[in-house]
Design a protein that fits this description.
It is a single chain. By secondary structure, the protein is mainly α. The chain has helices spanning 2-25, 36-61, 67-235. It is rod-shaped.
């Protein structure tokens, strides 16, 4: 009976060993870069579940009369689950590593292609740059020439205005000198005009007085004639 039990345990050990070896030789499939994090989480769960089962099996084995084979089987089961978890984690790591390498290679290829395009287009770009620089230089020279022309025009305008002001000042000075020179003669002429005006006014005033005197004389004569006429009529 004991021999049969040991033989059965040996057969079970062989099955567990074969399962672990198969798990190592045939890595998990279906793992991609997208689900690799989930695969690593699954590996962690498998380890935790294996440890919990091992602790439960160990407690169960301690209640049996023949605990050696039972404990060994529990350890083998834990080892198989650990190998499964490791295989799952390694495969996930491999997929992620290859994905990173593929992305890196793609970036390098894209950078190399861009560098190639830039190398091909660099002479034309440099020619375009030189042409633009020449255009900017020509435009800058044109702006500077226009600015210089405007400055010269402003200077000429300022000089002309200054000359005109100086000319007006000189003309005003000459006019003042002429007026100062002619002032005595003008004063004499003005006094002569005023004298003649006064004489004329006096003559007009005298004529007015003479006219009034004659008018009064006529009125008096007329009144006297009227009085004589009335007196003659009264005597009749």
């Amino acid at each position: 009976m004991a021999f049969r039990i040991h033989r059965l345990l040996g057969y079970l050990f062989w099955l567990l060993f074969a399962a672990g070896t198969t798990a190592q030789e045939n890595p998990p499939t279906g793992i991609t870069a997208d689900n690799a994090p989930a695969a690593r989480a699954r590996a962690k769960e498998i380890r935790a579940a294996a440890e919990r089962r091992f602790q439960s099996d160990k407690a169960d084995c301690s209640t049996r009369m023949i605990a050696l084979g039972c404990l060994t089987a529990a350890q083998d089961r834990r080892a198989a689950s650990t190998r499964e978890a490791e295989a799952l984690q390694k495969e996930a790591a491999r997929v992620e590593r290859e994905d990173r390498q593929a992305k890196l290679a793609a970036r390098e290829a894209k950078r190399a292609a861009k560098d190639g395009e830039e190398a091909v287009g660099r002479p034309q770009a440099e020619a375009n740059h030189r042409e633009k620089e020449a255009q900017r230089a020509a435009e800058r020279e044109k702006r500077e020439a226009n600015a210089q022309a405007r400055l010269e025009s402003q200077r000429g305008k300022i000089a002309a205005e200054r000359e005109a002001k100086l000319r007006k000042i000189e003309e005003r000075r000459q006019e003042d000198a002429r007026r100062a020179k002619a002032a005595p003669e003008n004063a004499r002429k003005r006094a002569e005009r005023e004298r003649k005006y006064a004489e004329k006014a006096a003559r007009i005033d005298q004529r007015k007085k003479d006219y009034e005197y004659k008018l009064q004389a006529r009125e008096a004569e007329k009144a006297a004639e009227e009085a004589r006429r009335k007196a003659v009529e009264a005597k009749k």
